[in-house]
Specification:
Elements: H1 2-9, E1 11-23, E2 38-41, E3 44-47, E4 55-59, H2 60-63, H3 71-74, E5 82-84, E6 100-102, E7 115-118, E8 121-122, E9 133-139, H4 142-145, E10 156-161, E11 167-182, H5 191-204, H6 213-221, H7 233-237, E12 242-254, E13 258-270, E14 287-300, E15 305-321, H8 327-336, E16 351-352, H9 360-365, E17 368-386, E18 394-413, E19 418-423, E20 429-434, E21 441-465, E22 468-483, E23 490-503, E24 507-518, E25 527-538, E26 551-565, E27 579-586, E28 593-599, E29 610-623, E30 627-643, E31 664-680
Parallel strand pairs: 7-10, 16-19
Antiparallel strand pairs: 1-11, 2-3, 4-9, 5-6, 7-8, 9-10, 11-12, 12-13, 13-14, 14-15, 15-17, 17-18, 18-21, 19-20, 21-22, 22-23, 23-24, 24-25, 25-26, 26-29, 27-28, 29-30, 30-31
């Protein structure tokens, strides 16, 4: 499995041409960690000096320095605490949010995913391009995650897209084209070495050799490529390189009333399979193409009223070889099929093959293709009203977001005949068929869709009283998620708030909490409270640090709190008993039976979500005139993980048979470690 995945996992990108053109009026940008640089936090922003939680951030312009076909994969190695386990590099399937982990895996339950919020609302990261990203922030400790309640324990990625600004029009064009090359893919053994080692293996088992010296010579010298083939299946089905192209065009600017950012992005990523139909009509290489667009508007309607309107979308087209074969299956044939099993093509042009193995080349170019067309869009409307008439620093805002995804598929399947070769009594070539040729059959239709509707209302307060600064935020969030084929919609309600107090920009204390509910649990047990406390101390502002010239900035911070996780692939409404038609009963003295019902999985009315206690202590520093250092130690204890208690329920009870034991909150996992990052600011 490692060898197969490495073909698509380990890619080397050689960019042959990169062109970046930017036309703009000069804009100065300079920020320092100890100044008022703003960082993204849950439902807002904070000055860096006021931050007491553990987060990691990266700017979009730094992500664009990495050549990757997906935004998710470009995050690899960029954010301390974020682990990316890429399972495949196949175009269109090279990234999944399930491959991201916060500080390792804390839950052994399957199907765990990190949350992604784009401009303040949950949305998939897979449909975004690096060209539209302003910043990506990873929230890591309880203080940063508490506002997400029972959904935050697996971590949250905050993605902020680019916005307009007051400036002359800026036009940016970026064109990239290049090649990809797989790394670390071993060559399969040749026919001579294979047959020699096969003979040796039989001798080791006390069996006679299968191949004679004359046959070994024929494999070695390639004197008869049809009856003594020597096929390198890697070279037969894979190209050495594959093209990758990207282009984006953006417009940015605005005046005092309206600021705008508009972006369009194109991507084409092609796989390594040989001799496929470039028009993707009868067969296909692994292929993915997408078109992304984004329009972000900020409008100052009046002195106190402003609004933001974001609209974005993505259209994707992916295709792979048909025949219901995965990339692992197609590529695994390189090593599963012996080099002397049969030739790629027989003398009459038919496919080689036998009863045990199909033809790896035929499986790619003669089994049809699978196409998938998808589209996703997100619409966000965010009005904000300044309430300074009531009191200074007070504002109210709201947000409505709608996100939708839909995909349809086109499946074209066919089969092919393969023939093994033998010689007749007169030396003529005999063909033994396996399988049969069949015409291309098409099946097109709807595959899946989902939608998410959010409403958020928020009240913010930010006020300075001489050396005291008080910041508070409370909000309400309604989340309705609808997915094709699911039993019912998933509903979340979240009431949350955060209060931050600082004295003399030196001592900081913060309390954050949420009260979150979900309809997956029994009435009366659907809500949970998730508090977190954090504190910070900026030592570099103390008098005893004034004479230490090599320390420009030094802050200690610590946090402790509770977060939750309600992700569960074992089914919904596990508190509710369900029944199904199963079995029959014989009644009376006759042989007639009567059908009956039995309980499915035993319900658990006390079922709940996973909880996680998180402790974090960290340090932020700027040393030696520009060396930035971050360090964090964390300790996490996840408990109440859903498990079926097979090891504690004896078999004679009867419930251990048929997978009907109830899921119970009995699992625990502890995770601790440290992380750090240094950079030059």
């Amino acid at each position: 499995m490692t060898i197969i995945n490495s073909i698509y996992k380990g890619k080397r990108y050689a960019i042959l041409l990169t062109t970046i053109l930017t036309f703009y009026a000069p804009v100065l940008f300079a920020q320092h960690i100890a100044d008022s640089a703003l960082v993204e936090v849950a439902n807002g922003q904070q000055p860096e000096w006021r931050r007491t939680s553990a987060i990691s951030s990266i700017r979009g312009e730094d992500l664009m320095k990495t050549t990757s076909a997906s935004l998710g994969n470009s995050l690899q190695g960029q954010l301390p605490g974020l682990t990316l386990l890429q399972q495949s590099g196949e175009p269109g399937y090279d990234f999944s949010i399930a491959n991201l982990y916060l500080r390792g895996r804390t839950s052994y339950a399957s199907g765990q995913k990190m949350l992604v919020y784009v401009d303040g609302f949950e949305a998939p990261i897979e449909s975004l391009s690096t060209a539209e990203i302003e910043s990506v922030t990873l929230l890591k400790d309880a203080s940063a995650l508490a506002l997400y309640g029972m959904r935050g324990a697996n971590g949250v990625l905050l993605v902020t897209t680019k916005k307009g600004c007051v400036s002359a029009p800026q036009v940016s064009i970026r064109l990239q084209t290049g090649i990809q090359q797989p790394l670390g893919v071993p060559d399969p053994i040749n026919a001579y070495d294979y047959t020699t080692l096969y003979n040796q293996a039989r001798v080791n088992d006390g069996l006679p050799r299968l191949y004679t010296p004359e046959e070994l010579n024929a494999y070695q010298n390639n004197t008869d490529p049809y009856f003594y083939p020597n096929v390198n299946w890697k070279k037969a089905i894979l190209n050495n390189t594959a093209p990758l192209s990207m282009a984006d065009l953006s417009f940015k600017g605005g005046g005092d009333v309206v600021q705008y950012y508009v972006m369009m992005n194109l991507l084409q990523n092609i796989g390594f399979y040989k001799d496929t139909d470039k028009k993707r009509r009868e067969n296909s290489n692994a292929y993915y193409a997408s078109f992304n667009f984004r329009s972000n508007l900020n409008i100052q309607i009046s002195k106190h009223l402003s609004t933001g309107l974001n609209f974005s979308g993505s259209v994707g087209n992916r295709s792979i070889p048909g025949g219901s074969s995965s990339a692992n299956g197609l590529l695994g044939a390189i090593w599963r099929t012996a080099p002397n099993a049969f030739p790629v093509y027989n003398p009459d042009g038919s496919y080689g093959g036998n009863a045990a193995f199909t033809n790896p080349v035929g499986n790619i170019v003669s089994r049809g293709l699978y196409k998938e067309n998808s589209r996703t869009f997100q619409l966000i409307f965010m009005p904000k009203y300044d309430l300074e008439k009531l009191t200074k620093g007070l504002s109210v805002s709201a947000g409505i977001a709608y996100n939708n995804y839909m995909a349809d598929s086109s499946i074209k399947n066919q089969n092919y005949a393969r023939y093994s070769l033998s010689k007749g009594a007169g030396g003529e070539v005999l063909y033994t068929p396996y399988g049969a040729d069949s015409p291309l059959e098409s099946d097109e239709g709807f595959r899946t869709d989902w939608s998410r509707l959010n409403f958020k209302a928020q009240l913010d307060y930010d006020r300075v009283f001489k050396q005291h600064q008080l910041t508070a935020s409370i909000f309400f969030l309604s989340d309705l998620y609808q997915k094709y084929g699911s039993r019912d919609d998933i509903k979340y309600l979240n009431y949350a708030g955060r209060v931050t107090y600082s004295y003399n920009q030196k001592y900081i204390g913060e309390f954050a909490a949420s009260y979150t509910g979900c309809d997956d649990y029994a009435p009366g047990k659907r809500y949970g409270f998730f508090p977190a406390f954090s504190a910070g101390w900026i030592l570099s502002k103390e008098n005893f640090m004034k004479n230490i010239n090599w320390v420009e900035y030094l802050k200690l911070r610590a946090s402790i709190g509770l977060v939750g996780n309600n992700q569960n692939e074992n089914g919904r409404y596990l508190f509710d008993q369900t029944y199904s038609s199963n079995g029959s009963y014989f009644l009376g003295t006759g042989s007639s039976s009567t059908g009956g019902f039995r309980a499915d999985m035993i319900a658990n009315p006390d079922i709940s979500w996973e909880k996680e206690r998180v402790f974090n202590i960290g340090l932020d520093a700027v040393l030696l005139k520009g060396l930035s250092v971050e360090f964090d130690y964390f300790h996490k204890e996840r408990y109440d993980i859903l498990s079926q208690p097979y090891s504690t329920i004896p078999g004679f009870v009867g419930a251990s048979y048929g997978d009907i034991l109830p899921y119970m909150n009995v699992g625990k996992v502890k995770n601790q470690g440290f992380e750090g990052r240094k950079s030059v600011v």
